[in-house]
Amino acid sequence: MSTAIAYLQLWISDRFDNRERGATAVEYGLMVGLIAVAVIGVVMTLGGQLEGLFDSVSDELPAAPAAG
Questions:
Q1: How many domains does the chain have?
Q2: Residues near 43 by Cβ (< 8 Å), separated by ≥ 6?
Q3: Is pLDDT at 5 greater than 80 in this prediction?
Q4: Angstrom distance (rounded) from CA 45 to CA 65
Q5: Helix/strand/coil for 1
Q6: Which residue range is the domain that position 40 belongs to?
Q7: DSSP assignment of 34-45, as one string?
Q8: Is residue 55 in a domain?
């Protein structure tokens, strides 16, 4: 039984090598960076239009009641 467990542990350690985890982390980091650049680009492009939209919605809302 212990031979089977040792074989399983060896198989698992080979299967999930630390080098693969490092490469995956780098890939995820690059994807997050590219998404951030895309979001910044969209916000810079549409920022003025979004501000106008939020201002018009804000103007249509009723005034908040006074705290008392």
A1: 1
A2: 50
A3: no
A4: 36
A5: coil
A6: 18-60
A7: HHHHHHHHHHHH
A8: yes
